[in-house]
Amino acid sequence: MVLLSIQTLPCSCPTLNNYTFNYRSQGQGQGQRQSQRRCLKSIVIRCGIAEPSGEPAPLGQKTKYNDGLFDKVFMTLFTRKMDKFGKKGSDEMEKKKGWFDYDYDSFVDVSRKMMQGRSRIQQQQVVRQVLMSMLPPGAPAQFRKLFPPTQWAAEFNAAITVPFFFWLVGPSEVVEVEVGGVKQKSGVHIKKCRYLENSGCVGMCVNMCKIPTQDFFTNEFGLPLTMNPNFEDMSCEMIYGQVPPPFEEDPVSKQPCYANICTIANPSSNVCPKLSAN
């Protein structure tokens, strides 16, 4: 998502309190640097973990969140858009739900419905439509101009991922990774992905999140991104600046279902059926 204007919100989490991005751009003109500074100066996002420890719940337990206004606005926007582009029938959801009646469960439920009757490729195409619809006209071209595929751009996008995608994936942190033999802080470690733990579905993780997000940044924005979900502990690593492998060469293509927690799992299959092309 391209962030053109940002408001500061109160924060109750010490790890993000006064979260400020100080950045510099080498080899860029003064005008472009000023434009980038206007794009993002200081970001503070309220934390939503409701667990006593302040950390995600252990594997097998669902993390409790205390979602605020910022979180619910994004949940509502994405859920409504997904329902609009994904539905094949009536406007039943929009008639029943008001603007602030949506929550994270609504978001996951709509995601699950979008999978029904669609192939892996079709699911990814619908998510792409949703993402494109969230952007103003000309946003991809503007993003490519502001953030060419450099180390600085990769590190900058990793930094803004932490606060702005908290509502979607839960707590995360910027980590050092190696891209093309160069160590840089363009990695994001998601401690326990909220989307994966709430859906409990490998297919939803891969088709509705990983692949569409990778393709969106790599092909629409021109900034390569690779996402490596860990299905053992539900964590995930995002690597900005790294070109993702073809699906057939990606380890996730061989991932079996969560047989005990996925409502649409096929325990008899060695690979999640939703990962097939059909």
TrEMBL record:
It comes from the Eukaryota. GO terms for molecular function: iron ion binding. InterPro entries: D27-like, D27-like_C. Residues 167-249 form the Beta-carotene isomerase D27-like C-terminal domain. PANTHER family: BETA-CAROTENE ISOMERASE D27, OS08G0114100 PROTEIN. This is Beta-carotene isomerase D27-like C-terminal domain-containing protein. It comes from Anisodus tanguticus.
